[in-house]
């Protein structure tokens, strides 16, 4: 009997991740390749087409491809386009689905990476029995996928859920889109690095983090420093968790999710980020929300969430 598979494609600013996934979320084969290597979009799709065929050739069982799911920055679900993505070399409006369809025979579904993660959480993550939740992705930036009544919220023009660009300080840090005080400038893998350097400049406390340049400092290093009792690292997590918790309390007021799921590099810090976020979330909720909103790790935190989330778009249409 032929096994049905979806192709999950996650397009990142640095790497594109591709894999073949079944309905239960098992990833059979996958491979990454450089996104930045292909300045010409047509050449990029040519390579993608070749890679999919190579991955299919590695399988030792009969299978059929039922569709392609794509997660990409600034993707428009309704139009099948990638629009003005700051971290991709293809500028302006890229007619992704149109060009993709010239090379592939099966349906393609594209949305932004955080929305794909939310669908993945609903189909084979920790939200399988939930109808109202949000997935917050904490990577280079902060992404968010919002699910209400069992349906992903796309909004009027497929751009709903850009919560990383909610302004928390009009005179604050600049985001990648040139917006001052956007949440992702404080709460993300990049944001916590910026917080560490802010704290280092404002303090004379001893810290192992003083030995690192900005470009050589990584989230794992900050977590290890916190575990070793480093005061700057501990304060950085507390500040990050406070800001995130306060904003999750604000987000609760417009959709009252059953749970927030954290995903991405910063979420891998575990209780260092979860504990202060949970504390400040609960402390800032309106009285009638208290005790009713969970903060949970994504069920895909230890899996290849990017590919699984993209593939979930296909199963969401089956």
Would you write up a description of this structure?
The chain has 318 residues and is of the alpha/beta class. It folds into two domains: 3-121 and 304-315, ATPase, nucleotide binding domain (Nucleotidyltransferase, domain 5), CATH 3.30.420; 129-297, ATPase, nucleotide binding domain (Nucleotidyltransferase, domain 5), CATH 3.30.420. It contains eight helices and 13 strands. It has helices spanning 41-57, 96-101, 113-124, 189-201, 219-227, 231-255, 271-284, 305-315, and strands at residues 3-11, 15-21, 27-34, 63-71, 75-76, 81-83, 93-94, 108-111, 133-138, 142-148, 151-152, 259-263, 294-297. A five-stranded mixed β-sheet has the order 3-2-1-4-8, with helices on both faces. The protein has a five-stranded mixed β-sheet with strand order 11-10-9-12-13, sandwiched between helices. Strand 12, helix 7 (271-284) and strand 13 form a beta-alpha-beta unit. The longest helix is centred in the C-terminal third of the chain and has 25 residues, at 231-255.
Features:
318 residues, 2 domains, alpha/beta, five-stranded mixed beta sheet, Nucleotidyltransferase, domain 5
């Amino acid at each position: 009997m032929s096994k049905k598979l979806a192709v999950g494609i996650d397009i990142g600013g640095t790497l594109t991740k591709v894999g073949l996934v079944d309905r239960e979320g098992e990833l059979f084969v996958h491979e990454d390749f450089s996104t930045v290597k292909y300045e010409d979009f047509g050449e990029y799709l040519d390579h993608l087409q070749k890679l999919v065929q190579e991955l299919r050739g590695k399988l030792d069982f009969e299978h059929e491809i039922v569709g392609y799911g794509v997660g990409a920055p600034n993707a428009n679900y309704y139009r099948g386009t990638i629009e003005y993505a700051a971290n991709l070399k293809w500028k302006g409006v890229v007619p992704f689905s149109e060009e993709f369809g010239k090379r592939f025979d099966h349906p393609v579904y594209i949305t932004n990476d955080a929305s794909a993660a939310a669908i993945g959480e609903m189909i084979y993550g920790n939200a399988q029995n939930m109808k109202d939740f949000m997935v917050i992705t904490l990577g280079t930036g902060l992404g968010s996928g919002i699910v209400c009544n069992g349906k992903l919220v796309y909004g009027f023009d497929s751009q709903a859920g850009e919560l990383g660009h909610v302004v928390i300080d009009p005179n604050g840090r600049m985001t990648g889109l040139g917006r001052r005080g956007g949440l992702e400038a404080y709460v993300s893998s990049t944001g916590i690095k910026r917080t560490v350097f802010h704290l280092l400049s404002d303090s004379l406390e001893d810290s192992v983090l003083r030995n690192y340049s900005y470009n050589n400092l990584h989230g794992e290093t900050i977590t290890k420093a916190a575990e070793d009792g480093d005061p700057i690292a501990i304060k950085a997590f507390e500040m990050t968790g406070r800001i995130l918790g306060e904003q999750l309390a604000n987000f609760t007021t417009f959709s009252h999710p059953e749970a927030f799921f954290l995903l991405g590099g910063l979420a891998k810090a575990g209780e260092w980020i979860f504990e202060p976020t949970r504390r400040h979330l609960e402390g800032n909720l309106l009285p009638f929300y208290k005790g009713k909103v969970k903060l949970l790790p994504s069920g895909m935190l230890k899996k290849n969430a990017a590919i699984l989330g993209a593939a979930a778009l296909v199963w969401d249409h089956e």
